[in-house]
Amino acid sequence: MDYGYGIGRQISRKEANYDGIPFDELELFNSKTRRGDQKAVVAIMKYLQSIQGVISWDDILTGATCDELFSETERKAQIKYTRYHMILAMRNLELAGLTNRIGEDSFELTKKGKKISMTNFDVWEDVYKLSIVELYHLHVYGEKFDSSKTEFVFNFKIKNRDN
Protein backbone atom coordinates (compact mmCIF):
# COMPACT_ATOMS: atom_id res chain seq x y z
CA MET A 1 0.00 0.00 0.00
CA ASP A 2 1.31 3.45 -0.92
CA TYR A 3 0.71 5.88 1.92
CA GLY A 4 2.69 8.72 0.34
CA TYR A 5 5.01 10.99 2.34
CA GLY A 6 7.89 8.53 1.81
CA ILE A 7 6.33 6.03 4.22
CA GLY A 8 7.78 2.58 3.56
CA ARG A 9 10.41 3.92 1.16
CA GLN A 10 13.58 1.84 1.27
CA ILE A 11 16.77 3.88 1.81
CA SER A 12 19.86 2.49 0.12
CA ARG A 13 23.06 1.87 2.02
CA LYS A 14 24.83 4.32 -0.29
CA GLU A 15 22.34 7.09 0.54
CA ALA A 16 22.60 6.32 4.25
CA ASN A 17 26.41 6.39 4.18
CA TYR A 18 26.26 9.74 2.41
CA ASP A 19 24.01 11.06 5.19
CA GLY A 20 26.18 9.53 7.95
CA ILE A 21 23.61 6.97 9.11
CA PRO A 22 24.94 3.82 10.84
CA PHE A 23 23.98 0.62 8.98
CA ASP A 24 22.02 -0.98 11.83
CA GLU A 25 19.87 2.17 12.12
CA LEU A 26 19.23 2.03 8.37
CA GLU A 27 18.06 -1.59 8.64
CA LEU A 28 15.69 -0.58 11.42
CA PHE A 29 14.27 2.33 9.40
CA ASN A 30 13.77 0.09 6.35
CA SER A 31 11.96 -2.64 8.30
CA LYS A 32 8.21 -3.02 7.82
CA THR A 33 7.68 -2.77 11.57
CA ARG A 34 8.68 0.91 11.46
CA ARG A 35 5.87 1.92 9.12
CA GLY A 36 3.65 2.52 12.15
CA ASP A 37 5.85 5.27 13.55
CA GLN A 38 6.46 6.67 10.07
CA LYS A 39 2.68 7.02 9.67
CA ALA A 40 2.51 8.55 13.15
CA VAL A 41 5.14 11.17 12.22
CA VAL A 42 3.00 12.33 9.30
CA ALA A 43 -0.28 12.23 11.26
CA ILE A 44 1.23 14.21 14.14
CA MET A 45 2.73 16.83 11.82
CA LYS A 46 -0.57 17.27 10.00
CA TYR A 47 -2.46 17.54 13.28
CA LEU A 48 -0.02 19.97 14.91
CA GLN A 49 -0.01 22.19 11.83
CA SER A 50 -3.81 22.32 11.92
CA ILE A 51 -3.77 23.34 15.61
CA GLN A 52 -0.87 25.86 15.53
CA GLY A 53 -0.33 26.12 19.26
CA VAL A 54 0.60 24.30 22.44
CA ILE A 55 -1.24 21.00 22.74
CA SER A 56 -1.33 18.21 25.30
CA TRP A 57 -0.07 14.70 24.65
CA ASP A 58 -3.58 13.27 25.12
CA ASP A 59 -4.98 15.66 22.51
CA ILE A 60 -2.20 14.68 20.09
CA LEU A 61 -3.00 10.99 20.58
CA THR A 62 -6.70 11.57 20.03
CA GLY A 63 -6.35 13.96 17.10
CA ALA A 64 -3.49 12.39 15.18
CA THR A 65 -4.86 8.85 15.34
CA CYS A 66 -7.97 10.12 13.52
CA ASP A 67 -5.82 10.67 10.42
CA GLU A 68 -6.70 8.55 7.38
CA LEU A 69 -3.26 6.91 7.56
CA PHE A 70 -4.49 4.84 10.51
CA SER A 71 -7.01 2.08 9.92
CA GLU A 72 -10.00 1.60 12.18
CA THR A 73 -8.24 -1.46 13.63
CA GLU A 74 -5.18 0.60 14.52
CA ARG A 75 -7.38 3.24 16.16
CA LYS A 76 -9.54 0.94 18.26
CA ALA A 77 -8.25 -2.59 18.80
CA GLN A 78 -4.54 -1.87 19.00
CA ILE A 79 -4.36 1.38 20.96
CA LYS A 80 -1.27 0.27 22.91
CA TYR A 81 0.51 -0.52 19.64
CA THR A 82 -0.52 2.82 18.13
CA ARG A 83 0.51 4.70 21.30
CA TYR A 84 3.97 3.10 21.06
CA HIS A 85 4.35 4.37 17.49
CA MET A 86 3.14 7.82 18.50
CA ILE A 87 5.76 7.98 21.26
CA LEU A 88 8.53 7.01 18.83
CA ALA A 89 7.25 9.53 16.30
CA MET A 90 7.19 12.38 18.84
CA ARG A 91 10.76 11.57 19.89
CA ASN A 92 11.94 11.65 16.28
CA LEU A 93 10.07 14.90 15.57
CA GLU A 94 11.65 16.48 18.64
CA LEU A 95 15.17 15.32 17.70
CA ALA A 96 14.69 16.56 14.12
CA GLY A 97 13.90 20.01 15.51
CA LEU A 98 10.27 20.09 14.39
CA THR A 99 8.61 20.05 17.83
CA ASN A 100 9.36 21.35 21.31
CA ARG A 101 8.31 19.71 24.54
CA ILE A 102 6.69 22.12 26.96
CA GLY A 103 6.56 20.77 30.47
CA GLU A 104 5.80 17.11 31.02
CA ASP A 105 2.96 16.54 28.58
CA SER A 106 2.59 19.41 26.12
CA PHE A 107 4.14 20.07 22.73
CA GLU A 108 4.25 22.70 20.02
CA LEU A 109 5.72 23.02 16.56
CA THR A 110 9.00 24.90 16.25
CA LYS A 111 9.45 27.59 13.58
CA LYS A 112 11.03 24.88 11.44
CA GLY A 113 8.02 22.61 12.01
CA LYS A 114 5.59 25.36 11.05
CA LYS A 115 7.47 25.99 7.80
CA ILE A 116 7.36 22.35 6.65
CA SER A 117 5.04 21.83 3.69
CA MET A 118 3.01 18.64 3.96
CA THR A 119 2.49 18.55 0.19
CA ASN A 120 6.11 17.47 -0.33
CA PHE A 121 6.84 16.09 3.15
CA ASP A 122 9.11 13.04 3.25
CA VAL A 123 9.60 11.10 6.49
CA TRP A 124 13.22 10.28 5.64
CA GLU A 125 14.38 13.69 4.39
CA ASP A 126 12.45 15.84 6.85
CA VAL A 127 12.64 13.74 10.02
CA TYR A 128 14.55 10.47 10.26
CA LYS A 129 17.70 11.52 8.43
CA LEU A 130 18.10 14.23 11.08
CA SER A 131 16.79 12.44 14.16
CA ILE A 132 18.76 9.22 13.66
CA VAL A 133 22.05 11.11 13.54
CA GLU A 134 21.06 13.14 16.62
CA LEU A 135 19.89 10.10 18.58
CA TYR A 136 22.93 8.02 17.65
CA HIS A 137 25.24 10.85 18.69
CA LEU A 138 23.46 11.21 22.05
CA HIS A 139 23.67 7.45 22.63
CA VAL A 140 27.37 7.12 21.74
CA TYR A 141 28.73 10.40 23.10
CA GLY A 142 26.15 11.50 25.66
CA GLU A 143 25.98 15.02 24.26
CA LYS A 144 24.14 17.09 21.68
CA PHE A 145 25.07 16.56 18.05
CA ASP A 146 27.81 18.83 16.66
CA SER A 147 27.57 18.90 12.86
CA SER A 148 31.23 19.94 12.56
CA LYS A 149 32.20 16.46 13.84
CA THR A 150 29.77 14.51 11.64
CA GLU A 151 32.00 13.43 8.79
CA PHE A 152 34.85 12.15 10.96
CA VAL A 153 32.62 10.49 13.55
CA PHE A 154 30.36 8.65 11.14
CA ASN A 155 32.98 7.66 8.59
CA PHE A 156 34.97 6.05 11.40
CA LYS A 157 31.95 4.41 13.02
CA ILE A 158 30.51 3.08 9.77
CA LYS A 159 33.81 1.57 8.65
CA ASN A 160 34.30 -0.19 11.97
CA ARG A 161 30.69 -1.30 12.51
CA ASP A 162 30.15 -2.73 9.03
CA ASN A 163 33.30 -4.86 8.89
How would you describe this structure to a colleague?
Helix 3 crosses helix 6 (about 80-95) and helix 6 packs across helix 8 (about 125-140). The protein has about 160 residues and is mainly α. About 30% of the residues are buried. The protein contains 9 helices and 3 strands; from the N terminus they run αααβαααββααα. The chain has helices at about 15-20, 25-30, 35-50, 55-65, 70-75, 80-95, 110-115, 125-140, 150-160, and strands spanning about 55, 100, 105-110. Strand 2 and strand 3 (about 105-110) form a beta hairpin. The termini are far apart. The longest helix is centred in the last third of the chain and has 19 residues, at about 125-140. It has one domain (about 15-160). Residues about 145-163 have low confidence and may be disordered.
